[in-house]
Amino acid sequence: MGSNFKMVAKTLFGFEDILAKELKDLGALHIQKGMRMVQFEGDTGFMYKANLACRTAIKVLKPIHSFTVKNEEELYKGIYKMDWSIYLNETQTFAIDATIFSEHFNHSKYIALKTKDAIVDQFRERKGIRPNVDIQSPDLRINIHINQTECTVSLDSSGASLHLRGYKTDTNIAPINEVLAAGLLLMAGWNGQCDFLDPMCGSGTILIEAAMIACNIPANINRMEFACERWADYDNALFEKIKEALLKKTREFHFKIKGFDIDFTAIKKAKINIHNAYLEEYIEVIHEDFFDSKKETEGKLLILMNPPYDERISIRTEEFYSDIGNTLKRNYAHTDAWMITANLEALKYVGLKPLPKIKVFNGNLEARLVRYEIYEGSRKKEA
């Protein structure tokens, strides 16, 4: 599999600890957490494994060069000095993503443009012909990260964001990101230890991620492609070997995963997505109003819900969140209930005291993940 090298896995705000644990459990070495990222080391096989199996990674980058840069000219020269023929030939296509945290540079698009100029100028001078840019489906995706005066050049081994698992073809209004859903489940301590309910399941993302965690199915097993599959040194036999080894670690799940939604269209979409993920055996979705429902099992139940925020879906906030609290208190004893909401004001209407309030982001919306432990006497205590 070759020698080890440094890699960087990008993630969402607040998920750094979870991603670090995922990487450690998979066998990563020299793990270091940063802001929205985790640095680690592994070999080529581990890079394939991280892309296939990490639930909370957005991208896996392979840094190939770094240099000091204070202006556009230094950036151009630093990129031009690299031998790009190692990674790309003149008939292939490439794309550049740039992120900057520096007082010396203002525009990431301009950084991407200068990087492109340096690469094509090198090819034109050496070969007389240049590779073309293809933003949608390039043969090589290059990542430029400038932190103050340090420029890091990386190859993007993932391509499209890893939240695009490959199973979601139908979405509802305000769908939840797959990486966010998986991260929330892991924060809630979900590992398939009991029955599970998403009472406002929409197009089924939380349910599908819950089933994949419960059965230890690799997060991106249904994905069509990773960017590293187009690299010159891509090892398909090794990739298939890693995939096969991960699939051998799947496990059976002996509890129930259930979803409700009041919108029949959402239920139809959820069923399609569940079918796409090959998880019909483990997930049941029902056209039902959570506020008219009751807990169906005697044992422990874990709930994770993503109720409307009144941002993209119209609701009567006070009444709606009050109904959530009343339904939990009256009908869901012995339940560990978790909820994500970006409507921080609405939490006071639930009428239950949340245990933690964990800061997360749903897209650009600052949100909180809150937990309510519902006991037999919760209704009396809150009355």
Write the layout of secondary structure elements.
Blueprint: E1 5-10, H1 16-26, E2 29-34, E3 37-42, H2 44-53, E4 59-68, H3 72-81, E5 93-101, H4 108-127, E6 132-133, E7 140-147, E8 150-156, H5 178-187, E9 195-198, H6 205-214, H7 236-247, E10 257-261, H8 264-276, E11 283-287, E12 301-305, H9 317-331, E13 335-341, E14 357-362, E15 365-374, H10 378-382
Parallel strand pairs: 5-6, 5-7, 9-10, 9-12, 10-11, 12-13
Antiparallel strand pairs: 1-3, 1-4, 2-3, 4-8, 7-8, 13-15, 14-15
Helix pairs in contact: 2-7, 3-4, 5-6
CATH class of the largest domain: Alpha Beta
**Largest pleated sheet:** 8 strands, mixed
- Which architecture name of the largest domain does CATH use? 3-Layer(aba) Sandwich
CATH fold-level name of the largest domain: Rossmann fold
Overall pLDDT metric:
93
What count of structural domains? 2
β-strand percent reads 25-35%
Order of helices and strands: EHEEHEHEHEEEHEHHEHEEHEEEH
The helix content is 25-40%
Overall strand count? 15
> Gyration radius, to the nearest Å?
23 Å
Shape summary: elongated
Task: Name the assembly state.
Answer: single chain
Uncertain ranges: 379-383
CATH level 4 superfamily of the largest domain: Vaccinia Virus protein VP39
Termini separation (Å)?
62 Å
The number of helical elements comes to 10
Q: In order across it, which strands form the biggest sheet? A: 2-3-1-4-8-7-5-6
Content-based structural category: alpha/beta
